[in-house]
Design a protein that fits this description.
351 residues, Rossmann fold, 2 domains, binds S-adenosylmethionine
Length: 351
């Protein structure tokens, strides 16, 4: 199988279940990845194929990882245990968990008044102003209304303020290790793997929730830090809608490109170039977070594998941290995003 690109990172447009055909045995120092959460996110087929829960898949990754090499894998709060079991069944040793905390999670659960009115046979759509649908394949495709649902019956009003879910504020990162070659010391001496760097091992340099606003999409004001690599371009940079979206989000409208995770649904929809299904990736992880994980998992100069490369955040993080990187991404639509990341230095447009 030929690599899609080989510099500055090697990228394969392939199914990572065939990793053994792409990489040699014991060739990578660490696997750092954001696998499908298997939730069927946004109706996407790649997020419900079961690969993250398949021990055979994780066994394939183990084959290409050095003894003592680390695995760091994100998971969904309610399903990560299935991934952890699959990773363990494949022969990896579970080491720890890392918690990624954020304070801008969106609660998408149904409110109690909405459910109770529906139960009572009330037309819950009546009188509500629906926002325009975005294009297929974007967040904006979801049915959205301008205002919060207002209870219409007494029974529903009694449950105002309740809903079926919790507002998300964290995600787990599984930390596992390929079995050592003998002792910790022997593995370290022979393979250079299995040790966490003291300088980055604590919570000290991870933002606390109160400071983690930069992970999400709606920070405003002069404090807005540089969040991620440039990923998206407006389809029509001159359109009034683009200027309005930038105004709302506090972005500089005439900058060349924007980080995907500071764009909201409406703004993302405006970034579709004509003729393409989508450009921005729907599940981009913050670059700073991935840099932190890469620095923890992989020794300097080592090779980091991301078998679910997406827009290439892990690959860029690895290069930024002085590691080498190899990525696998099955969907060719995301390859231009990886290209843009690896061809473009980290943007400072929003500094
Ligand atoms: C959760 S996303 C990763 C996003 C990434 N963290 C980023 O910041 O851009 C998972 C990616 O894995 C890809 N994928 C899913 N199944 C795959 C497979 N079997 N082989 C290779 N890539 C796959 C999907 O197309 C998707 O882009």
């Amino acid at each position: 199988m030929r690599a899609y690109r080989t510099t500055p990172a090697v990228v394969y447009n392939a199914d990572s279940r065939r990793i053994g055909e792409l990489l040699g045995p014991k060739s990578v120092h660490a696997v750092v990845t954001d696998p499908p959460y298997e939730l069927g996110f946004g109706g996407r087929a790649w997020d419900r194929q079961g690969v993250a829960f398949d021990p055979a898949f994780w066994a394939g990754l183990l084959e290409v990882t050095r003894p003592g090499g680390m695995l760091m894998a994100f998971g969904a709060r309610r399903l990560w245990h299935r991934m952890a079991c699959a990773v363990e069944d494949a022969g990896w040793e579970l080491v720890d968990q890392i918690v990624w905390m954020f304070d801008d999670g969106m609660d998408t659960s149904e409110t109690a008044p909405h459910a109770l009115d529906r139960e009572a046979g009330v037309d819950v759509k009546e009188g509500r102003v629906r926002l325009a649908d975005g294009p297929a394949g974007t967040y904006a495709r979801r049915v959205r209304y301008r205002d919060r649902y207002q209870a219409k019956t007494d029974g529903a009003r009694a449950w105002e303020g309740f809903s079926s879910g919790l507002r998300p504020c964290w995600e787990p990162v599984l930390v596992a290790r390929a079995p050592r070659d003998g002792s910790f010391g022997h593995t370290l001496a022979v393979w250079g793997t299995g040790a966490f760097p003291a300088a980055t091992d604590g919570a000290a340099d991870m933002p606390l929730p109160a400071r983690s606003w930069w992970y999400g999409g709606h920070a405003h004001g002069a404090d807005r830090p540089v969040v991620d690599c440039a990923l998206v371009r407006p389809a029509d940079p001159g359109s009034p809608a683009w200027f309005q979206a930038c105004d709302r989000l506090g972005l500089v409208a005439d900058a060349d490109t924007y980080p995907a995770d500071v764009l909201d649904a409406a703004a993302l929809a405006l970034t579709r170039p004509a003729g393409r299904r989508r450009l921005a990736h729907p599940t981009v992880k913050p670059l700073a977070l991935m840099r932190h994980l890469v620095a923890l998992a992989c020794p300097a100069g080592g090779l980091v594998l991301d078998p679910f490369a997406g827009s290439g955040t892990t690959l860029q993080a690895a290069l930024d941290e002085g590691r080498r990187a190899v990525g696998v991404e099955a969907d060719p639509l995301f390859l231009p995003l990886i290209d843009r990341r690896l061809d473009t230095p980290v943007q400072t447009l929003l500094a």
